[in-house]
Queue: 2 jobs
Job 1
Amino acid sequence: MAAVDVVIEEKKEDAVDRQRVCPFLLRVFLSTTGYHHKITDYNKGNVPTNELQIYTWKDATLNELALLVKEVNPEARRKGTKFSFALIYPDMRAPIYRMREIGSTTSGQKGPDDLKTLAQARSSIGDYMDIAITPPDNWSSGPRKGGYSQYNNRSRPY
């Protein structure tokens, strides 16, 4: 009798077949001040000027997005640079946008949010992403947990 090898593949629950599923456009706005843009920068059809357009999938992690930002932003490549991520989404009850922080990563260090996906963050196609970049030298004088605290703990209305 011939031996049979069994191969078990572990699939993530939100994994996307990137060969078959078309990516979507994620409009990312970078801030190198260490703070997120003001939410008023997104109202009345306006957006901040420092835009990066990324084609990605719902299973993209925050660490993957940070790597893509580092490819085009040489200042963000330094070890210890912190990336704080926030979703900007339209309020369904009013003609304004809302901001919700979804996590942070640090270059050269493993963190709890590194493997968080856009799907886990409840991102929807059409949302913007605001990334506050804090260089390692500015940590002591930089933001506490990524930006404007008045927008923390606001969840998307569903």
Job 2
Amino acid sequence: MKNTNIQEGIILIPDFNGFTEFVFNTKLYIGEYVITQLLSTLMESNNQYFSISEIEGDAILFYKYDKNPSYIKMNKILQKMRESFNKRIGELSRELSITINLSLKFIIHYGKFSQYHIGNFKKLYGTTIVEAHQFLKNNYAEQPSYALFSHSFLDRNVDFKVNADELYLSEVGGIQYFEKANQPI
């Protein structure tokens, strides 16, 4: 049996650091409101460049079929998402008179994956998806707010140049650190 649904593309997972503590230390209705607002902000700031496979808790699994991904374009998207996220945290903190200690990390990976349907749901499948999720639980990042660009993503880019602000690790790829979400950009 041959699957003609297999394509190459980008996997992007924005994930909140500090989520577990936030859930345990915030009233249920306030926490739900804040997380809904922040996830919606990330979805809107994506400008429909990526499709959404699923949302689970504090993470969104975005994907885009693309044989020629652009590092420069990806950085612009991440910057817009971070700025929107940080701005919304500031607004929500003022609106609710609470401190929101959440920061944002991104996993950017590239590879082959397929898509299947179960009822009304579209699910992604493949080692690329599993690898992207494994990158979320890494011991490489030393700061809570960062973007991890996998080797497979960096290797596919024609516009990638070494950046002095990034840390390169032979095990995974490049890590670009950001400031904490509640600090101004």
